[in-house]
Design a protein that fits this description.
single chain; alpha/beta; 8-stranded parallel barrel; 21% strand
Length: 494
């Protein structure tokens, strides 16, 4: 495991929707195809809403220079030091999960020089850069597949077929034929040779790969990729998208260094939207903590939103207090918090496949106050109707980033459950003498009594308030009675 991997704050950029560099989408109109898989291409104004954007044939115009310009101006100021980019290689669509050339930056996004400039800018600001590897399938317009359709060798062996000899497609989408890793040529091109695609981009400065649909690649392919990476690039990171299955079977020294933790996302959504209660939610958190290997758990990405899900703020119907609970859990449960672009500004529209990939609402960023030194340390819960939700949410993120930086327990400390009931859970993170306590209550105001384990009581700590209405948490007794406030989150440290 790379030594740098666990102690990071992550941020996901959906490139086309994050920021434009030097040219608007209209200035570079010639870079976009006239049609995308039969659909007429549509160029969008930056703030425009388009509920078919996820189909891939419409474009906002975001690019690598746009990301790079915001590394120092925005991301490093926020406290980000791990940046994950959705695919950057040549492809037809806005999302680029239909690769046509693994060795070329898509011209819509920029050039190799733009990528190297972004890498340098990230590294100058202590930000590690993770890129997206789509090695399960390609575009149907990839030159390999076009040659395979003509029966040319060895390309007919590059793609999977059924028993009747027909080519197979990912999720039945006829634009995405499945690659066959039984082909030695595919393995060498993508990862097994010294000059493979994976090695090439790591040598260009990327700090690791995120594997798209890692489950469908399978354990054998992931092991081969991991072996090739560790032999040539031992300090690089390998993360996998594991969405449909439980993550622990994909983690290990010979497998993924971490997963996109969709189990955490799913159970958190279920708790906050009343599909499960606090007792069941705590059981799930404890199960993950006990069963996932610890080094890989700490490196896995804790998600509350992604480009493939509803945004969390949409899930909770714009309720700022519930959203802050989700963010608190994301930052305090074992793992690496991965912020989906715009969540930190309180972007509300976020329905999956309709508005969860819309252009970043930069109007929400107050460039003067965002650079204020430490105004986020003592933020209290704010009523949604009264607060400026952009800045209150943004400062709340900065507050949690500051807490994580200043509490080793939140990096790789133990997870200790203390209490759960229908609407509430309380847990500790502990490393050596550093303790962090978290209380989330999505229900009504009331009093509860929390048991204090002997090992914690013997530490004789009274934790100070970091967020929420309670002044302190006294852990020097066998139990502590506290007052809960409606839909409130409390964090303590010591």
């Amino acid at each position: 495991m790379p030594e740098w991997a666990a102690n990071r704050i992550g941020y996901q950029c959906f490139i086309d929707s994050f920021a434009i560099g030097n040219q608007s989408v209209y200035d570079k109109a010639l870079l976009y195809p006239e049609t995308v898989y039969g659909e007429k291409t549509r160029l969008l104004d930056w703030g425009e809403e388009f509920d078919r954007y996820s189909y891939g044939y419409s474009f906002y115009g975001g690019d690598l220079p746009g990301v790079s310009q915001n590394v120092s101006a925005y991301l490093s100021t926020l406290g980000i030091d791990l940046l994950y980019l959705t695919p950057i290689f040549k492809a037809n669509t806005n999302h680029k999960y239909d690769t046509m050339n693994y060795r070329q930056i898509d011209p819509q996004f920029g050039s190799l020089e733009d990528f190297k400039s972004l890498v340098q800018n990230c590294h100058d600001h202590n930000i590690r850069l993770i890129i997206d590897g789509v090695f399960n399938h390609t575009s149907k317009e990839h030159p390999w597949f076009l040659k395979a359709l003509k029966g040319e060798q060895p390309f007919t062996k590059y793609y999977k077929k059924n028993k009747d000899g027909y080519y197979l497609f990912w999720s039945g989408i006829d634009t995405l034929p499945l690659l066959s890793h039984d082909s030695e040529d595919i393995r060498k091109e993508l990862y097994e040779s010294p000059h493979s695609v994976i090695s090439y981009w790591l040598e260009q400065g990327a700090d690791g790969w995120r594997l798209d649909v890692a489950e469908e690649l399978g354990h054998s392919v992931i092991r081969n990729i991991k072996t090739a990476m560790r032999e040539r690039h031992p300090e690089k990171l390998l993360i996998g998208e594991v969405m449909e299955t439980y993550g622990k079977s994909w983690l290990g020294n010979d497998l993924l260094d971490g997963v996109m933790n969709y189990v955490f996302l799913g159970t958190t959504v279920n708790f906050l939207t009343d599909k499960i209660d606090g007792i069941n939610y705590m059981d799930e958190l404890v199960k993950m903590y006990n069963e996932y290997p610890k080094p890989q758990l700490f490196t896995s990405w804790n998600l509350i939103s992604s480009h493939d899900t509803n945004r969390m703020l949409y899930q909770v119907d714009g309720n700022e207090n519930l959203f802050k609970m989700a963010v608190t859990l994301q930052f305090t449960y074992p793992g690496t918090p991965m912020i989906y672009y715009g969540d930190e500004l309180g972007i509300i529209p976020g329905k999956k496949d309709e508005s969860n990939r819309r252009g970043m609402d930069w109007s929400g960023a107050d460039w003067v106050t965002l650079k204020a030194p430490e105004p986020w340390k003592h933020i209290q819960s704010m009523d949604w109707q009264r607060a400026n939700h952009y800045n209150s949410i943004h400062f709340f993120y900065k507050h949690l980033i500051w807490l994580r930086r200043n509490n080793p327990a939140l990096i790789d400390g133990e997870f200790i459950p203390l209490y759960s009931d229908e609407s509430t859970l309380v847990f500790l993170r502990r490393k050596d003498n550093n303790l962090v306590a978290v209380i989330v209550n999505k229900g009504a105001s009331r009093n509860i009594k929390i048991p204090v384990p002997d090992e914690i009581r013997q530490m004789a700590q009274v934790l100070k308030n970091e967020h929420g209405p309670l002044n302190q948490l006294d852990l020097t007794r066998d139990s502590v009675e506290i007052q809960l406030y409606k839909e409130n989150t409390c964090i303590f440290s010591g």
